Amino acid sequence: MTAPHARGVLFVHSAPRALCPHIEWAAGRAIDRAVNFSWAEQPVLKGVQRTEFYWEGPAGTGAKIASALRGWEHLRFEVTEDASAGNDGGRWMHTPDLGIYFAQTDSAGNIVIPEDRLRYAMEIAGSNALELHRELRLALGQAWDDELEAFRNASSDSQVVWLHKVG
Q1: Could you give the angle at the alpha carbon of 65 between the alpha carbons of 25 and 33, nearest 5°?
Q2: At what angle do helices 142-155 and 129-139 cross, to 10 degrees?
Q3: How far apart are CA 52 and CA 35, in angstroms?
Q4: Whole-angstrom Cα distance, residue 105 to residue 112?
Q5: For labelling alongside 149, which of 29, 44, 109, 155 has CA 20 to 30 A away?
Q6: Which Pfam family is one of this chain's hits (predicted)?
Q7: What is the mean pLDDT of each run of 10 residues along the chain (167 residues)?
Q8: What is the 3-state secondary structure (H, E, C) of 136-167?
């Protein structure tokens, strides 16, 4: 019997140049094959690199990649694993200040908050709407999204054109 197939993306948003070969080695070890990334300058921080790598492997490979990279100083990354038949998807985010965050994702890539986590947030918040808001932001990984957003935007190679309706 073969392991369920999975695929996803490793986004390295910022890594010191000296760390880049070590990231390739760790990611390659996690997916059981040598990899070579195409690195580019990250315009948000001087002297750091960024890359995107599309991977395929057995279900759980996203967790293996995230585990191989978590905790490295000065490294910002995201790993996604798409949901597949019989397997939930996942999203891992890491920043030097916040550490690692994990969330289950659905087939569209949306974060899924487990029932027990929602009940905990409601219990902690009681009737305090601001506290409930804080707990839900934590459950959604908002602090990680906030920190990584500038790096994501800077990594975008596409030009955005805003269209405005007139009249």
Answers
A1: 45
A2: 50
A3: 12
A4: 5
A5: 29
A6: DUF3145
A7: 80 96 97 95 94 94 96 93 90 96 93 96 96 96 95 64 42
A8: HHHHCCHHHHHHHHHHHHHHCCCCCCCCCCCC
